[in-house]
Amino acid sequence: MKYISSRKRLWALAATIALTMTAGGLAAQATDLTVARSVDADSLDPQKASTTQSLQVTNLIFDTLLTMDKDGSVHPGLTSDWSMSQDGKMYSFTIRDGIKCHDGTTFDAAAAKASLDRALDPATVNPNLSAWGPITGSSVDGKVLKVQLSEPYGPFASFLTSIQAAFICPSSVKGGDFKPIGTGPFKLVSWIRNDSIQLEANPDYKNFNPLIENPGKPHIDKLTLKVIPEDVARMAALRSGETDMVEPSLEEATDLKSDSNFKVYAAQLSGQQMLAAFTWKIKPLDNPDIRKAIGMAMNRDAYASIAFEGLVNTANCPVAPNLFSTNEALCATWGVKYDPDAAKAIMAKYGYTPENPLKVKLLVHKLPGWDQMHQIMQQDLAAIGVRADIETREVAADFDYMKGYNDHTDGEPAVWTMGMSGVDPDYLYFLWKRPGFVNMGLNSDVDAMLEQQRQLSGDARAAKIHDIEKYLMENAYAIPLLSPGWGWLMASTSKVEGFKMGFMVSLLFNDVTLKQ
Fold it and tell me: Could you tell me which residues are beta bridge partners of residue 79?
């Protein structure tokens, strides 16, 4: 055995310690986070993904040109600066210096153009193609990506912050097969279908999202997204420590809220809104007074606190809080307030009483929380002289049924509920521009206002959106109920700190640390 002097051993030990030291002390051990979800992604290609669960994953791998703060304001992302021409038909995006893809290649204006071109190519079959707006072409001028539109498109900047607008690196599509290579906080290690997705932190990451505090590499080193379809099994995995975080059911989230060993997160920035609507072409729901009375009977506080266990908020506007131009106080002046006595008086004026009720269908879909809300709603309506017979269908079947029912001008009238989400109030266009969502579109005046708000920006656009909301609410075509309005919940052990849910229920792990 070769002899090593004491002094050399000391030098070797000192060198070993030096290699394990950081500026703040001893180097931290690698940290892993395991998250259990009910379903797997259907694709890791953000320009082909069609489900929220898929886009939650792609949002970890890829970045967006722009970002959105919690007040709905738009900020730079992959761009250091951006501008819109005076006529609203040209956008210029200055791509940041030093942005690296996960494979070490550079993400520059040419890479951004290549991603944009692919997103718009009909051959890509992008399920979100229409949301990109009336783009006619793009070009590169040094660091600047220029995007030409055929007409102004007010929602464009907001859309570019969304998980639907991720920008991929050119190397993702080299060789024919798609490889998820982005610039985001995590990079793909492996994907075993219907089992798990393994991600690791991007050591070169620079964050510009105002919702995230950490300026660089995520604090956790590895992130595992594990598929556990059964609710009971996911909860068992959380309680046993097999996983650090899970998607809980509404009932399970309620139990965990009161347990100090766990944390529950609701999607406060989801951009989601729940509404009650009417078959307004069928008498007597063609009468705005009747629609207002029904809205005045709806106890939104009870729906939030009882049916959804306090995990959602009441809402006043036809679009969700925190989005561009949304003003909850202003909407409250236009819409109906909970007043069952006044509602009862209105119904009596038209000959409807609890003894001689107006008969309606309450057409709903089956989802946790919604079921109990509809039962409470049924009782609310009965108290003012409206007998609502609940008909429940699965979500897709319910909307398919409503598409035909909303065209009826006679028969039994119906009240129904729905939800919508997005990062911009432009989803009013999708809902109400004729023919509208499931044929609920209104009239030429609303069509014109919806088109006009797309042609505007800034304060002028906000004012036009307010005109639309005022019209919908003063005529009681829509009764805002709750936001977020979905069961997009997460739960973790108490050792998890810094987790956030962003817009469109994105999952933000950049700030996450694990208490030992």
Answer: 95
State how far the Cα of 167 lies from the Cα of 46, in Å rounded to an integer. 8
Largest CA distance in the chain: 105
Fold observed for domain 29-41+184-269+488-516: D-Maltodextrin-Binding Protein; domain 2 (3.40.190)
Residue 40 CA to residue 225 CA, distance in Å, equals 9
CATH fold for the domain made of 272-483: Dipeptide-binding Protein; domain 3 (3.10.105)
**Rounded CA gap, 351 and 274, in Å?**
30
Distance CA 218, CA 509 (A): 7
Query: Class of 63-174 per CATH?
Result: alpha beta
The pLDDT assigned to 486 comes to 75
Question: Could you tell me the residue ranges of all domains in the chain?
Answer: 29-41+184-269+488-516, 63-174, 272-483
Residue 227 tokens, joined? 């598929």
The predicted pLDDT at position 175 comes to: 82
For 364-422, write each residue's pLDDT tens digit.
Answer: 998 999 999 999 999 999 999 999 999 999 999 999 999 999 999 999 999 999 999 99
pLDDT at 248: 96
**444, 442, 417, 445: which is closest to 431 by C-alpha?**
442
Whole-model pTM: value is: 0.91
pLDDT (tens digit per residue) in 73-110:
999 999 999 999 999 999 999 999 999 999 999 999 99
Q: Is the pLDDT of residue 27 over 50?
A: no
Spell out the residues 6+ positions from residue 50 whose beta carbon is closer than 8 angstroms to its own.
42, 43, 127
The answer to whether 88 and 457 have CB atoms below 8 angstroms apart is yes
Three-class SS of residue 458?
helix
- Both structure tokens of 84: 């819109």
Helix (H, G, I), strand (E, B) or coil at 155: coil
Residue 29 pLDDT class (50, 70, 90 cuts): low
Percentage of residues in the chain having pLDDT higher than 70: 94
